[in-house]
User: What shape does this take?
Amino acid sequence: MMIEKIVKIRNKAGLHTRPAATIVKLIAKYECDFFISRDGMNINGKSIIGVMTLAAEEGAELTLTFDGSDEEEAAKEIIDFFEKGFGEE
Amino acid sequence: MKSFSDVYRNAENKIAGIAAAPGIVIGEVYLFTKEKLEINDADITDVKEAKKNLLEALEKSKKEFNKIFAIAKEKMGETRAGIFEAQLMILDDQVLIGNIIKRIEKEKKQPEFIVDDEISKYQNLMVMSHEAYMKERANDIEDIKNRIVRNLRNKRWKSKFRNDVIIVSESLTPADILLLSRNKVKSFITDHGGLTSHAAIISRSLNIPAVVGTHNATLKLADGQNVIVDGFHGYVLFDPTEEQISFFEEKHNHLIALQKQLEEFKDKRAVTKDGKEIQMLANVDVTGEIDLVLTSGAKGIGLYRSEQILDEIETIPSEDEQVKIYARLASRIYPDFITIRAFDIGGDKFKLFDYDEPNPFLGLRGLRLLLENPKLFKEQIRAVLRSSSHKNIKFMLPMVSTLSEIHHSKKIISDCMDELSTKNIPFDKDMEIGIMVEVPSAAVMAKEFADEVDFLSIGTNDLIQYLMAVDRGNELVSDLYQEFSPVVLRTLKKIIDDSKLAGKPVSLCGEMAADTLAMPLLVGLGLESMSISPATIPYAKKIIASFNYKDSKLMAEKCLSVCDEEGVQKIIEKFFSDNKIIRTRNII
Assistant: This one.
């Protein structure tokens, strides 16, 4: 099984360095694989340097995939973080 | 007297860039070529040893970077130091390190080659992006890469060299600037980077003059060459002529003298010969400038441009982050007050709609944008209120053009107050609310607007642009931007008189207040408070102390009856010579 979900960037400043760091910290506790893709670019979401290469502005759509034993819990937490606009305006 | 533009117009030895951090420096060039590390891609036989070396180099880099992170926090504060945290995380990036180790095992090449190749891949992806900030990000990462490579070679990071040099480099990482600043570097010149690059922001907060974005300074300049750096105007002069040196030495000495006067005038008030006191307030851009304000003898902060935080931390600060910044400023300036101006940003700052404004200056700016984004506006209002327990914060609204905008804003502010009261969060219930008068409609209705608020502040830069319908950045029309146009004087007079009628204080915070030529005129027009850059305050005090208010009033009346800018300037110049005021046109 695998979870795939399209999310939208909701905060004004986009996916800048700080939320990138938070995503990597959040996913670190899970075992499952986590990838973020946009426009054909597929990035390992457990890698800070990888996530930093994604320029994602407000409104951009990213595809998240979770694959592994704890994929459901991981997906819930990460998708929630995206949907809350990274806790920013 | 010769002006800066006279000097630059004919200079063939100039390099133009972006004025990133103010100041004038004359000195010797030190080319900071980050010795393009020749990457060794030799084959290896001992994979185990290579892996061990890699892990040791990573550990060592982490230690070094933790130190830089600590210095950054101390020198720049927690929020701004945040840019170093993500870099530190890269050294712990298991995906990256895992790939590097896999490649070492498979390709059996020097670890430094693999490290360089692997991290460069990510940098290339960043550079390919259209967003300017992604290029900055690629530059920031350069530091991590080189640090690991150096540590693999057991070389110490080169940061010790002669003091008192002017660093010239293609680009500088935040860590470079921080480390170089510890060696008392005089100034920075870079080929790349803009006003909002981390390097520029850090130079400003460390008070080191800098010119960035020169494109080719590293090609034009050589080690040991003499240069003049002008961080006010964004120029570098190489092999300066004697005439240029003496011009800049004079300006430099003038600056130093100004600094001394800062001390001398610190505890003196700004009073005319016949005893009328003018309230001198300071403008603050970068949070770090508060130190300068405290030594300037300002009676408070007349304008804190809160939107600068966005540049400093690259994003919209959360409510809690704002509270930290505002509360700290308020407590540092206590018992004097601080006027926090709500975010004055336009749609170009962050995308709100999929719509490019054809005419942003007449578009969704300042208060208009805040009212369209109540969540952003409310967060800032709550943050300001939550920081107001010392009762020394005033809140100011930018770009007000109608009365209903004021009503609407006041309703939102009172909603925020109610919200905090319900939660039992303390705040100043009597916090003063004022507006910027910088749109002609606000000037025409100044009395009615003043009736609705606690104070007014005239923003001359925008007011003049809108009055004359001229973009002063546009060289084709910039000569129509006339500070001393009778139109401007009459408008100022009306705003000042209207606010007095309404019984509300009025201040002026544009660049006009910092123009020494304008000072007696503004006092003569009845202005009793002005807010200028802290470094200019002592000079303003000195000028104000050299004339009588009643004479300046007569002079202002004469100016109001004249119909052209030239006529006004003649009257003012005569006033200066009649009163024997030495007019050194301010360079700041």
